[in-house]
């Protein structure tokens, strides 16, 4: 059974940086649409960034210029570099992958908590 596992969350102050990683097993991320979602308390789950299997990247407007998504094919790992973090970005961040032929993200990690304080 394919799995994805996030790491790299933590507690930081506003303006700091964090790098999230998502390692996959049983699934080749290069052949998949992959992305990062986040869920904050009282808010809907939000797609933060994604890379399609065709290499097209997407960033939600609020993170453009501060977050960078990248894929390390050799390590089969997806990363999200987050700079200039804001308190309102405190959330659980999830890695998701959409395997070949699937129409939705069908593999999800358990999430990694990011907490940004004033």
Lay out the secondary structure.
Layout: E1 3-7, E2 10-13, E3 18-25, E4 33-39, E5 46-51, E6 57-59, E7 67-72, E8 77-82, E9 91-98, E10 107-108, E11 112-117
Parallel strand pairs: 2-11
Antiparallel strand pairs: 1-3, 3-8, 4-5, 4-9, 5-6, 7-8, 9-10, 9-11
Main attributes of the structure:
seven-stranded mixed beta sheet; 11 strands; 52% strand
Describe the structure.
With 118 residues, the protein is mainly β. 0% of the residues lie in helices and 52% in strands. The strands form two sheets. Strands 2, 4, 5, 6, 9, 10 and 11 form a seven-stranded mixed sheet that branches. A hairpin with a 6-residue loop joins strand 4 and strand 5 (46-51). The N and C termini lie far apart (41 Å).
């Amino acid at each position: 059974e394919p799995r994805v596992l996030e790491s790299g969350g933590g507690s930081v102050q506003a303006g700091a940086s964090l790098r999230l990683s998502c390692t996959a097993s049983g699934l080749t991320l290069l052949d998949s649409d992959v992305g990062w979602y986040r869920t904050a308390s009282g808010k809907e789950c939000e797609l933060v960034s994604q890379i399609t299997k065709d290499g097209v990247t997407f960033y939600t407007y609020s993170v453009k210029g501060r977050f960078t998504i990248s894929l390390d094919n050799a390590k089969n790992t997806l990363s999200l570099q987050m700079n200039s973090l804001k308190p309102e970005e405190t959330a659980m961040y999830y890695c998701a992958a959409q395997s070949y032929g699937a129409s939705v993200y069908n593999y999800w990690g358990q999430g990694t908590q990011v907490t940004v304080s004033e």
